[in-house]
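ok so i was messing around last nite and threw this chain in just to see what happens. nothing serious, just curious
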Amino acid sequence: MQHRLIQVIGVISTALYAAFIIWIYVAAPRSFKEVATSAEVTVGTYQVDQEKFDAALRLFRQQQYRAARDEWQRADPAQRDARTQFYVAYAFYREGWGRVYNDTALFKQGLAAIDRAIDSAPSGALTIDDPDLQMHTPAELKTELQQGIEPSLSDFNPLKVFRQRK
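result:
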């Protein structure tokens, strides 16, 4: 009986080790910190660093969008928090928006971030209650970003310079 127990324990430990190696290969972490973050995501205990998120929000409100995005990256290294990714996308929108033309590269990065926010949101529903923002849902922001990328006849309208940024 004891011989059988040792065999079962050996098979289980080998299977767990193989699963760990496969997980490491798929996750492809570059540091031990990334291994820990990936493990937290897998287990379901992942949380955003609230202090860094708040610092990024202060930078965002001071119109320092690149610095805010960098801080949000540190607050949400796995890019799994819907609210953080929404703000990242909004920062790309604000920095890329222009009275004459929009920065297409920044808007595309904003679209990628808003897609991550939509994918990370529980049941796809996310509403940001921030009075400083004019768009409060990912759908609104995604529409603005898509319209900013797509060329249209309104791009040649000289009255476009009077439009307001959201």
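not much to say yet. Residues 53 and 75 are 6 Å apart (CA to CA).
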